[in-house]
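Board notes (copied after class):
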Amino acid sequence: MFATKKKLIFNIFHKSDVFRPYCQKATKGKYQLNKKFATKTYGQPTHETHPQLVKKDEITPFVKKSEFENRRHKLIEQIATYVRERNPEIKQHLVVIPSASKQYMSDKIPYFFRQNSDFLYLTGCLEPDSCLVLTATDTPSQHCSVLFMRRKDDHSELWDGPRTGPDCAPNLFGVDQSLPADELENYLQSYVRSNKTSTLWYDYMNPVQTEVHKIMCDYLNYMGKKMWESPKVFVHRQRLIKSPAEIALMQKSCDVASEAIVRTIQASYPGINESQIFAKVDYECRVQGAEYLAYPPVVAGGSRANIIHYINNNQVVQNGDMVLMDAGCELHGYSSDITRTWPINGKFSPHQREVYEVVLDVQKQLIKECETFPTLDSLFDTMCALLGKGLQQIGLIPKILTSQALIKAAYQFCPHHVSHYLGMDVHDTPLITRNIKVRPGMVVTVEPGVYINNKQTQLPKEYQGLGIRIEDDVLITEDGPVVLTRNCPKEVTDIEHIAGHERS
């Protein structure tokens, strides 16, 4: 049946005068589609296919091909310099960075695909089952980048969508060479035969792609000398400092999430289910262009706000409760991370407002403290001291305490860290310690909170069950901190105005 239809459509196509200019003569009077009119297909948006999204010379929105090329070159140079200072005899390096693979919910039903952040940072490639291989010598002009990608396959593309394929990859991604993914093993074996003293840079301890990891394990066994290290810390050091294009992307991500949260607060009301609030913020982020939320959001009504990672989001929010919502979106590979707390009925009670203003005042002081380029760990210590004093003023902590005792008491009210790095991942560059001083180009969160669970019976009952956190995303610059989430209101009067907004 299908073959008959295909033949009929083909005969109509090649016999029609309308289509004949787009065809080329073939054997026996038949016609085929002229190759010059064939449309290239890619495994991700490009300027050719999505000009409204990707500009000329960009691989991903905002980020040009030249920036990805510079990232790869910088990584190789950092690795080469690191080794040269410790072992100048080693001059050849092989760096292997795999992409992510599709994950499946069940049988043939896939989860939404998300690329490995390190691979995406170095290539801009959004396709699964790929791999970047960088080779380096002591001569920078001889550095080489090879991108291994899935072959073009009509049957697979019918089900899963277009693939870029190795032929188009060098021009699209700016790599020196591209080969089919199934040639990786042969490439590595050939490389080691010609470069027996090279060092391998591959993260064996945290495999990203099963197929590549198996090949790399075989490769390590094949090598005479077991010299290998992980390149991740070098990639994370680069990712820590954002380029102008990355900063623009993060600002856009923060703007989208900020607007979504405002609209979500406006749409909330007593008796709403947390799941409806979740759905609203998800919708509002996506409708503005975000691919998805950056993480499962916390939507915690009432005392559930005392569960730091509450993501069940399935309870009714009662009149008089506050909602603590921690949500952000991922836009073109970059994340935002915002927390706002608001009264569901549009009006803070006196005790809610009292605690909220303590948290807000502490947060403002911490953001200002970023002018001095502190470490994130020292920022946490500052938070504990400030929070302790604020809670003393409203009578939740005794006033006669030593400095250390005050900090310890404050920690009982806020047991989580006050800051983390932000970028392609929500908890970005996890290999970078929080005891280094922040520098211009870093983006960090500032998120103090106060959590008073119902078990703290020594406190007045009207405070029990309160959970409040305020979180903003902050860009560190030479001229002082810039709050990227400034369009998401947090002042008491602004929150009450938005939450009490007349609803249709």
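Comment from the instructor: The radius of gyration is 27 Å. Residues 148 and 401 are 62 Å apart (CA to CA).
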